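worker-3 :: picked Reactive intermediate/imine deaminase
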Amino acid sequence: MAAQSKTAIRTDAAPAPAHTFSQGVRKGPLLQVSGQGPVDPTSNEYVFHGDVHAQTIRTLENVAAILAAGGASFEDVIMLRVYLTTRDDFATMNEAYGEFVTARVPSGVLPARTTVFTGLPREEMLVEIDALAVVND
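worker-3 :: tokens ->
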């Protein structure tokens, strides 16, 4: 059996990677979206300083853009990982996350999720989110 090729996913609708990684990688039906933060894809600037609700929405919009570039949508996502800098932001993030994701999963079968409290690469970042999707071409 031939090995499936690995493809980097790239879109201008999400921020360019700041370091040495791809926005997303697809191999066969699997699509992994790299951790995204609250960055405007046009300016590549961090936005909504101190507002975890708005940062969560912007971050999920970036995830959605990379999913779309890889041929997927939130309906195809099986796992999302959310990283927060403080437990105090959980309820607000969860509200924004719920609004965004529920509206984009018509089947009602929401992705699995893990939430971790940790330090993030930039002080401006209150949230970072990555995704794993299975794409059915």
